Amino acid sequence: MKASEIFQSLPLGKLLSDVEGTYILEVLKCYIRDFVYMIHPVQTNSECQLLCESVITGCRHLVRGEYGRLLPSLLGCHMTYILNDMRFKNFANIVHIWPGCKLKWLRQVCDYRPVVERIFGHFSHDIENKEFQYGERCQKGIENARYQWTRAVVVKLFIEHVCTAGKEVEIRRCMPLWVTLREGANMKEVQSLEKVEKFIKTCNKDVVTQCFGQQVICVGCENPIQGPPVRLPCEHVICRKCLQDCITLKDFVCPNCQKEFPKDLDQTKLKRGNFGH
User: Fold this and answer.
1) Which residue intervals define the domain RING-type in the entry (predicted)?
2) Which end of the chain is more exposed for a tag (fewer CB within 10 A), N or C?
3) What is the largest CA-CA distance in the chain?
4) CB 195 within 8 A of CB 258
């Protein structure tokens, strides 16, 4: 890079050119992070991380084999940002408006729902009664539209009942559910239901990990705990099914150490944290 050569001729450039060591990459990461915070309207840590990765990727492509040398890398980061200035600005605008996009999308689905479902209802009535008012091409188009609409309704319900439920821990990634149902979504078929079930179980596992730390094994049934765990006074952890079995059998002892626990154990008073051993 010509700019790098010019800067190297300056006193500060000569000083930076002599800096070497295995810690250079870590220094670059810290510098890029500070640089992004200074020049970009960062709103979240995840946004900053994404921008830093983009700058590093662009810098590697720009300076090629020189990445890792302090001076060329610093200049490469600045040049990357300058060359992609408009793209970074567009990204900032998207991030700014995105928080309200879910609600706007939900509003659109609700507005269109009566009309769309009326069309599907008439189509189904036509097929059942063999009235054949719809041609073959039209039938195929409506079937595909119905699959897409089913996807939209499933995602809508997920957003309404999970992502906007006002809970402390929210599940923000809705697109994987949309992608999961990309092929012939039909909630009357077992295959589509199994896809939704698998996605919800994955989300549940992620949320449990966020709330209670890494997944642990129940000392009662020795299976991974899929929901909120229960910590007994003896510090052993069991799943809610095993706890319910103990209550049903009136056997109020830990399955592991046989120590008794209160009959009125409050399951709601669980502190978040790592339940691992």
Assistant:
1) 218-258
2) C
3) 87
4) no
Are 214 and 274 a contacting pair, CB within 8 Å?
A: yes
> What is d(CA 236, CA 222) in angstroms, rounded to the nearest whole number?
12
Alpha-carbon torsion (85, 90, 94, 96), positive or negative: positive
The three state secondary structure string of 86-127 is HHHHHHHHHHHHHHHHHHHHHHHHHHHHHHHHHHHHHHHHHH
How far, in Å, CA of 171 to CA of 163, rounded?
5
**156-200 pLDDT tens trace:** 888 877 775 555 445 556 778 888 888 888 888 899 999 999 888
Q: Which of 77, 112, 105 is nearest to 164 (CA)?
A: 105
Specify burial of residue 72 (Cβ count, 10 A radius: 0-12, 13-18, 19+).
buried
- Where do we find the tokens 């059942």? 128
Please give the Cα distance from 31 to 81 (Å, whole number).
Answer: 14
What is residue 67's three-state secondary structure?
A: strand
Q: What is residue 164's predicted lDDT score, i.e. its pLDDT?
A: 56
